[in-house]
Amino acid sequence: MARIAVAATAPFGADVLGRLAARHDVAALLTRPDAPAGRGRRLTAPPAKAVADRLGIPVLQPERPLPGLALDAPVVVVCAYGLLVPPETLAERLWLNVHPSLLPRWRGAAPVERAIMAGDTETGVTIHETVAELDAGPVAAQEAFPIGADADAGDVFTRAAEVAVRLLDGVLAEPEPRFRPQVGEATYAEKIRPGDRVLDLERPAAELVRVVRALSPHIGARAELEGRRVTVWRARVGEKGSFEPLEVQPEGGRRMEVGAWRRGLR
User: Which of 1, 135, 180, 199 is spaced 20 to 30 Å from 217 by Cα?
Assistant: First the structure.
């Protein structure tokens, strides 16, 4: 069992935090400040903070992770934290980043989503040293796994969390982690923008289904069906090659099977 701190904010980081806390001594969580969320814009804690509070882990929420943080551990595991850690803070201890891709492929903010959108059949997890350049640090451990033909981003994130914690067990057990340079040409996974969510129904059905899978169940793809704007959560390619939505959510409504939604339009 290693004594570590964790820097995490988003649901993927929260999942990894919970799994690590069951196997290691987590001294503190470094996460982003609470922020307005939802229709009412109520101040809401990050998902990772909710996990830490449940487990009794001390939480730090600085606007910026400046030097001198009271993390009380020699190693910080970074996973979907969302803030740049400056070099002077990195110099204080070892920072290990959990990245859900086979680096150097898909460096950046949305590696799972971009991999599915691109039609990749394989992804994985890379544990690497956090450095000033985005996701460019030397690799301590890496493991590939397939992306199922029907897998959505939620499925991939869950598998990635399982793999990440197992890889970290090995890395943290070493007296000094052994690193190797990243090999190959880097590609970049840009943040998902509003335009990325819009389904152009003139595009090939297989491409549209990949977008739906990539944005489910956490973001959602958008389309206009039957003259109504909806979020599409599940879809498939039909027998004749057409795009077939399976589960939708009308504006202001709940998620439902597309047949039930269409019946409600009559």
Answer: 135
pTM, two decimals, is: 0.95
CATH 3.40.50.170 boundaries in the chain? 3-188
Task: Residue 168: name the closest of 143, 190, 138, 151 by CA.
Answer: 143
Q: CA 59, CA 41: separation in Å to the nearest integer?
A: 22
Say how far apart CA 262 and CA 77 lie, in whole Å.
47
For residue 160, CA distances in Å to 224, 252, 263 come to 33, 32, 38
Helix (H) or strand (E) holding 155, with range, is: helix 153-173
CATH superfamily of 194-264: Formyl transferase, C-terminal domain (3.10.25.10)
* DSSP conformational letter for 197: G
- DSSP E strand stretches across the chain: 3-8, 25-30, 35-37, 42-44, 59-60, 75-79, 94-99, 107-108, 122-129, 139-146, 188-189, 221-225, 228-237, 243-250, 256-257
Per-residue pLDDT tens over the stretch 49-58: 999 999 999 9
Contact 197, 159 (CB under 8 A): no
In which band, very low, low, confident or very high, does the pLDDT at 99 lie, cut at 50, 70 and 90? very high
Say which range, 89-103, 130-144, 250-264, has the weakest mean pLDDT: 250-264
